[in-house]
Design brief:
Blueprint lengths: L2 H24 L1 E9 L5 E5 L3 E7 L7 E10 L6 E6 L5 E6 L4 E8 L25 E9 L3 E9 L4 E8 L9 E6 L14 E9 L5 E15 L1 H25 L1
Length: 251
C-alpha cells in the first residue's frame, strides 16, 4: 500500500475509535427501585415508652415494614406517633404532642421485618456508580429542623450511613426534594449495593416535632449498559487492527 493509503486506513480506524469511545461514554442506564410508596397504612403510638410494629406492606421493598417508636418525654401532650397515612398524598408522618419528645425508626427488612431482603440488588446485576446514584424523597412538613439518618446494610453486615438535617418547612411551603448521592454515605465503598439486606430511616429527638415525608422513596442507580462492554471490546479490536496496520506500513 502507498503511504497515502496507509494514512487513509489509519484515519478511518481513528474515526472508529473516537466514535466508539464517545458512544461508550454516553452508554449509562438508570435503574429505579422504590423503597416505599406508602400505599399501606400503619400507625404506632407511645407515651413515655417504646413500642414497635411490623406489617405486611404492599408498595414497600420486601413487602414488610417495621416501625420502632421511642417516647422519652410525655409532657402532657399525648406522647408521639409515627404513621403512614394513605390519604392523598401518601406520606410518612412523625408527630409529637405539646411538650413531648420522641424518636422513630422505620425499617425495611423482609419477612416479618427480621429475615432481611435476601440481598436486594440495586444495580440490576451490575456494579453501580455511587457518585451518580441517589436516594430520593421529599420533605413535606417540618415545624423544626431535625436530624435524620439513613442506613443500608448488606448481607455481610457491612453498613453505609448518611446523617443529614431536615430543614424547617411550613404547611404552605412547597415540598423540599432531597437527593443524596450514595457516595455521600459513610463506608459506601464497603457495602455491596448488589446485596442489601436491611434499610432504615431514623429521626426525631426534637421536642414537639412534626414532620412528613411524601411518597415515594426511591434509589436511582446509574449502571453501565451491557452494550457498553461490547463497545469496549470493539474498541480494543480496533486498536489491535490499527497497530497491525502500522506494523505492516513499517514493513
Amino acid at each position: 500500500k502507498t503511504p497515502s493509503m496507509h494514512r487513509t486506513v489509519d484515519q478511518k480506524f481513528h474515526a472508529i475509535l473516537f466514535a466508539l469511545f464517545a458512544t461508550t461514554a454516553l452508554q449509562a442506564a438508570q435503574v429505579t427501585n422504590t423503597i416505599d410508596d406508602f400505599t399501606t397504612a400503619q400507625s404506632v403510638a407511645a407515651t413515655n415508652s417504646s413500642t414497635n410494629n411490623t406489617i405486611s406492606a404492599g408498595g414497600a421493598l420486601g413487602t414488610f415494614r417495621t416501625m420502632n417508636l421511642f417516647s422519652t418525654n410525655y409532657g402532657g401532650g399525648g406522647g408521639a406517633v409515627v404513621r403512614v397515612a394513605t390519604n392523598a398524598p401518601n406520606r410518612l408522618s412523625f408527630e409529637s404532642g405539646a411538650g413531648a419528645t420522641g424518636s422513630f425508626e422505620v425499617v425495611w427488612g423482609g419477612t416479618n421485618g427480621t429475615a432481611g431482603l435476601g440481598g436486594f440488588d440495586f444495580g440490576n446485576g451490575q456494579s453501580i456508580d455511587t457518585a451518580n446514584s441517589t436516594l430520593n424523597f421529599s420533605l413535606r412538613i417540618a415545624d423544626f429542623a431535625s436530624c435524620f439518618t439513613w442506613k443500608f446494610t448488606d448481607t455481610s453486615a457491612n453498613a453505609a450511613t448518611y446523617s443529614g438535617l431536615f430543614p424547617t418547612n411550613g404547611l404552605t411551603d412547597p415540598a423540599v426534594p432531597i437527593a443524596i448521592t450514595l457516595v455521600s454515605f459513610s463506608n459506601h465503598s464497603d457495602v455491596d449495593w448488589n446485596a442489601i439486606d436491611f434499610i432504615s430511616l431514623s429521626g426525631g429527638n426534637v421536642a414537639e416535632l412534626d414532620l412528613q415525608i411524601l411518597s415515594s422513596v426511591q434509589v436511582i442507580t446509574t449502571v453501565p449498559e451491557p452494550k457498553t462492554w461490547l463497545l469496549l471490546g470493539l474498541a480494543g479490536l480496533a486498536v489491535a487492527i490499527t497497530a497491525r496496520s502500522r506494523s505492516g506500513k513499517r514493513a
